[in-house]
Specification:
4 copies of one chain form a homotetramer. Chain A has 209 residues and is mostly helical. The first copy, chain A, folds into 2 domains: 12-65, Orthogonal Bundle (Arc Repressor Mutant, subunit A); 74-209, Orthogonal Bundle (Tetracycline Repressor, domain 2). Chain A contains 10 helices and no strands. Chain B binds a DNA duplex (21 and 21 nucleotides) through helix 1 and helix 3.
Amino acid sequence: MNESSQTSSKAGPRAPRRDRGHARVEVLLSAAAQVFADKGYEAATTTEIAAAAQSSIGSLYQFFPTKQAVALALIRQQSADLGARLAAMAEASAGWDVDEVARRLAGALVDFRASHPSFARLIDTPGAPEAVVLDVRRGMRLQLAAILAPHAPALGRARLMAVAAVVQQVMKSAVALNDDPAADNPSAARAALAELREMLRVYLGAALA
Amino acid sequence: MNESSQTSSKAGPRAPRRDRGHARVEVLLSAAAQVFADKGYEAATTTEIAAAAQSSIGSLYQFFPTKQAVALALIRQQSADLGARLAAMAEASAGWDVDEVARRLAGALVDFRASHPSFARLIDTPGAPEAVVLDVRRGMRLQLAAILAPHAPALGRARLMAVAAVVQQVMKSAVALNDDPAADNPSAARAALAELREMLRVYLGAALA
Amino acid sequence: MNESSQTSSKAGPRAPRRDRGHARVEVLLSAAAQVFADKGYEAATTTEIAAAAQSSIGSLYQFFPTKQAVALALIRQQSADLGARLAAMAEASAGWDVDEVARRLAGALVDFRASHPSFARLIDTPGAPEAVVLDVRRGMRLQLAAILAPHAPALGRARLMAVAAVVQQVMKSAVALNDDPAADNPSAARAALAELREMLRVYLGAALA
Amino acid sequence: MNESSQTSSKAGPRAPRRDRGHARVEVLLSAAAQVFADKGYEAATTTEIAAAAQSSIGSLYQFFPTKQAVALALIRQQSADLGARLAAMAEASAGWDVDEVARRLAGALVDFRASHPSFARLIDTPGAPEAVVLDVRRGMRLQLAAILAPHAPALGRARLMAVAAVVQQVMKSAVALNDDPAADNPSAARAALAELREMLRVYLGAALA
DNA sequence: CATGAATGAGTTTTCATTCAT
DNA sequence: AATGAATGAAAACTCATTCAT
C-alpha cells in the first residue's frame, strides 16, 4: 500500500531489509504513539520512546534519522489508516441520505481520533513538519468532499471544499469535547457531543440541500 | 472574580511594588505573548521572552517564579479581557435577533483570537496548568450561555450549557481556519470561514427556536 | 566593649550613625543567626536574611558589604559573648576542684552552643573567612588554657595548650551528640552525653594531676 | 546489607551495563571525592566534577540523576570501605588489651579519614540526604560496639552504645585536629593529637574496666 | 537611609544525536 | 543490526551585588 512511497521519502524510516527490522519499526511506532499521545511532541523524548518499545536509543536511530522523522512516520501511517476508512465510507455512502451521512461521518471520525489519540496531538501541535501536516489535512478534506459531493450535485467545487473544511473542524471539535473533562459532569460532556452531532446534521441538511 | 487576589495565588506573579515594576511586568507579558504565539509554550524560552522585553533574565524571574507563571499571568490577563468583551455583548444583545447574535458572536470571537494569538496556543497546549485553563473555559461557557439565554427562554439549563459548549468549539474552529494556510488559496480560507458562520447561524436558528 | 575594634575592621558592619541604624543591625544579625542556623552558610541567601529581619536587601547591604561580612559580624558577636562567659568562669574557677571544672565547662559550653546554634554551623563550615575562624578558635583555646592552668601548675605551656585543644573538641562533640537524632532513642542521646561528660572528667582528672 | 541493592534505590546511580560505564563511574566518583573534599558539598559543582573526571557533564548525568546522588554514591562507597576495615579490626581485636584497642582504633580511624577526606565533609554537612547519613553513622556505632563488647563483658547494651557513640565523636575530633592548621605550629597539632589518643586510652580504660 | 528593581554570570539538569563495541 | 555510552549546547532558574528613586 505504501511501501514504495515511504522508501523514497527523505525523512521516513529507512527501509528495513528483514522482517525483524520491520517488526521493530512497528513496535517503535506504536510506542511513539503512546508517548506522543501522553506528553505531546515536545515533551516526548526519544529515549522514552525507545524504552517504551523495549528497545534502545541506538536502535531507534537505526530506523529514524531524527525525532521529527518518527512523528512523521506516525502521522503518515495513521493518516493512511484514516484515508482507508474514509475511502470505504465514500463507497458505501451512495445510498445514504444526508442525515445518515452526518451520523456516520461523526461516528467514524470520533472513533478514529479516539483510537489514535496521538493523531490530534501531532497534527495540531507545532513540531511536526508543516508541509506534511498540511498535506494530510488537505487529503482529508478532499476525501470528505468526495463523500459529500454525490449528495450535493448542485454545489460548486469551491463551495464543496469549504463545506468539507467546516466538517473537518467539527470533527476536531468532537475530539476536544470528548477529551475535555471541563464539562461540569460527564453527562454534560455527552450532551455537548449530542449537540455537536445535531449541529452537523442541521448544517449538512441546509448546505447540501 | 480573580482580578484582585492575584498576589495570594500560588503561581502568580510576585506583585511589583514600584511603578517601574508594574511597567516591566507589562512589557514582559506582551513580549511573552509574542513569543508564545510564535513558538508555543514548550518551544518558547524564558531567555527569549526576557530579550524580547529588553530586560535581563533576572528581571523576568523577579516577577514570575517560573515559566509557567508567565503563561498563567498571560492567560489570566487575556481571559479577563475576553470576559469584558463578552459581558459588553451580553448587555447589548437584548435587542438582537438570533441571526444577529450569531453574526456578532462569530465576529467578536474571531476578532479576539486574532488580536490575541497567544491565547489559543496557551489554552490548547499542555504546559499551562490544567486547573486554570479549565476555569477559563468554564467561565467563557457561562458567559456564552448568558448571552444565549434570553433568546431561548424555553431551553433548560443543561441544554443551554451544551449549546454554549458547541458555540465555544465553533469559535476555536474559526481561529483554526483563520490560521491554517492549508486552504489552497486565500479565497478558500475566506470561503470556509463564511461557511462556518453560516453553520453557526443555521444551528443557532434551530437550537434556540 | 567592642565598638572600637569593630569599626576599624575591614569587613565588619559600617558604623551606623544613629540608633535606628544600630537597632537595624541587631535585627539583621539575629535574623542571620536564624537563617544560618537553619540552612548553613552556603544555602542561606541574603534576601532571606533581609526578609527574616523584616527589612530589604538594600538595607542589608547598607550595613554589610558582603554576605561574608554578615557571617563574620555574627561570628565576632557570638565569640565575644562566649569569651565573656569563659572569662567569668576563669575568675570563678579558682576554688573548684578538677571534677567541678569538668562539670562546669561541659555545662557552659553545651549551653552556649545550644543557645547559639548558628555558631557551630558557621565555624565548622567553609565559607566563613578562614583567618577569623582560626582567630576565634585560638582565642577560645587560650581562654580554656587560662581556666585549666591553675589546676595543673606542673603542666608545661605546650602540654596545656594541647589539653585545651582536646577540651575544645570535646565541646564540639557534645553539641554534635545533642543535635544528632541518630541515636536510637532520646534516652540514648542522653546516655551518650553523660558518657561524654564522664570522659571529660576522667581525662581531666588524669591530665591535670 | 546494601551493596547489592543499589540499582533499585531511589537516588542511586543508574547501573552501568558496559565495562566502559563502570570505569567511568569509578573515575567520576574519585573526581567527586576530590572536589567535595576541597570545596564541600554546596560549593562543589557538577561541572567541575565532570571536568576533573575528564568527562562531559552529560556523562555524569548518564550515571547519576542528581548531584545529590553523586554524594550519596560516594558516601555509600566509602562507608562500605570503612565498614570493611572495622570488621577486620573486630576479628583481630580478640587478643588485644584495652590499651591496644584504643591505640588501634585511633590509628585506623584517623587513617581512614585522612585517606578519605571527602567523607567527613559529606557526612557532617547539609546537602547529603539525612536518612543515609544517619544509617551510616548508626552502622559505624554498631561496629564500634562490636569491637568494644568483648573487652567489657559486664557493660549493658545501652551503656555500650553510649560508649561507642563517644568513641565515634572522638574519631571525628581527631580528624578535625588533623585538618585544622589553627594550632600555632605543626608540633602543636601533633601534641594535641597525642593528647586525644591519651584521652581515649584513659577513658576506655575506665569505661571498660 | 530605605526600598525594591536590575543585572548576568553561574548552576543544575535535559535531550537529540553520534559513536564505539 | 543492536546496544548503551558520550557529547555539549541549551534550558530553567538562583542569587550576590549594584543602582535608581
